[in-house]
Amino acid sequence: MSSNYQFKAKTIIGEGRTTQTAVDEIKNWLMEACLPQISEELTVLFLTSCKNDIAATQCTIKAYFRIKSDAPELFNDRDIDREDLTKAMKTIICSSIPVRMPNNIVIHFFKLTDTNYRNLNLVVSMKLAFMLLDVSQRSNPPEQVIVLLDMKGVNLMHLTCMRMGAIKKFIEFVQEGMPIKIQMIHVLNTNYVFHKGLDLIKIFMKNELMALIKPHPPSMSMEEFHREWIPASCLPEEYGGILSSVEKLNQKTIEQFRELKPFFEAEQKLRSQYKRNYSKKWF
């Protein structure tokens, strides 16, 4: 597979984040395991996310192909100009925050902008969340990701939008197949709906993921949040930050998704090869 990344594996190796020996070991294993040949750039993403543990990297790669193959509703047809994705970007705001936290940690921000539950397609919104990972990892691979979710505007009727089968696959990929680790999940403006929703989906979540969730009530001041968790330099202006508005960040995300069309197409083509030739051999 030719690389559609804007960084080079040699750069990451030169930074000491992984080694050429580890990359070559994974490449050889892929051939022995009859799995698709991924680029060295994607290989280093898997290795760094697994702290260069070869066995863990192999398990993550297998889960990556298996889960994506089983969840086309979350990973296929990632064209931002599709009607469903265009509508979703008018319903939620999402952004890979352009300023990184210390230690090269990226923030992914999500907020409901259309509070009418009838307009929320949660499955498509989850697809956008995974597309955002590719935005963050394409040119400057972060070490980890912080998720920042604002619950303002979410009400009980939004719980009717939940599709448990897709949510199970979403959480499974986050825990087993995603080539980056989550450092923390901050949830702003938590309320009864948040806790009720969490009760519904926590059966799919390992204790390690549950421990990463940090709820923040509406009464919390942003000054306190800046001081203890995320500085103003990494937040939009609506949250006391110095960055652009959430709407401008959202428009930038749409542009980034559009630029990634060839990347998404190539990645889906790679996975179709796995589905045709390898799924029965391994699973």
Give the rounded overall mean pLDDT. Answer: 94
Beta-strand share of residues: 5-15%
Q: What string gives the helices and strands in order?
A: HHHHHHEEHEHEHHEHHHH
Overall, the morphology is: globular
Q: What is the topology, as strand order, of the major beta sheet?
A: 1-2-3-4-5
- Number of DSSP strands? 5
Low-confidence stretches: none
Distance linking N and C termini: 23 Å
Structural class: alpha/beta
Oligomer: single chain
Question: Whole-number radius of gyration?
Answer: 19 Å
Q: Can you tell me about this structure?
A:
The protein is α/β, with parallel strands linked by helices and 283 residues long. It is built from 14 helices and five strands. The chain has helices spanning 9-14, 20-32, 40-49, 54-70, 72-75, 83-91, 122-139, 164-177, 192-201, 207-210, 222-228, 246-259, 261-277, 279-282, and strands at 92-96, 105-112, 144-150, 181-188, 213-215. A five-stranded mixed sheet has the order 1-2-3-4-5. α8 links the parallel β3 (144-150) and β4 (181-188). The two termini are 23 Å apart. The model has no long low-confidence stretch (mean pLDDT 94).
